[in-house]
Amino acid sequence: MPPPGPSVKEAPVVFARHIPSDISCLVLYEPLSPNYDKQPIRVGTDGGNKFWAPPNRKNAYNRSKAGTRLFRWMGGRMTDITAKELNKKYSPYSVATIFTQYRDTHHLLAVTFDAERKDVAEENGGWKVLSFDHIPQQGTPPTYYSSVGVAGDQQQLAAPGSPAWMPQLLPAIYNYDSRQIPAPISAGLIGNLPILFALPAFSAQPEKLSDVLTSSMQPNRWLKHQGLPHGHISERGLVVTVFLDPSNKKGSTKTLLDQLQNGYFGPFYGP
Fold it and tell me: What is the mean pLDDT of residues 216-242?
């Protein structure tokens, strides 16, 4: 008997395979670092590797204004609008806080709120490693979305990740790992929008954030960059907030952004 396929959830009905050019949102990146004067460092071991966890108290962080950047994402492409638009008020859609760990511990840790605004221990029960829901798509042979978040029922992708974005966007520890033959076919990566926007930021050093986002983020895909040191620096944190775009009221609504992260317009990062 062949091994079982991926554990899956009900497939969404996909009416569009491409992100429309008139959908937009604003994306704010704010560097966050631990303040160990407020809460002592928290470390342990996981499989023989050091396991570090960010503070779980909201007052134990330092937020860097110097590294804060604001972008407009429209139709799959990013534009840096920090200089003109940073200090205005916008309507939030969703937010997540994401941290790397130590160099030899490759999981990313996240919560789906601003960890400097709420105590993690009280709001979420602790930091979560990224996880996935496996969502089948109609067709023969079947393909599978991997939907990334912090409450998925799987620890790895539903199918082998694309070499275009694995491991540049996701550490290799998250890749599909099964003896099933043949392997499932990937439909791409979808999921929590702030996390999807955060992954490219960790693909390069902090000072290269704008260069990477404006060149490598493409409609429904990731254009792999070359020659840049990876950005998985120990204890690097980001608060990523997605806002509705006030300059595009018809193309920037909660309904459209819900559809975007749920795969209605195809994968955010394609296979």
Answer: 93
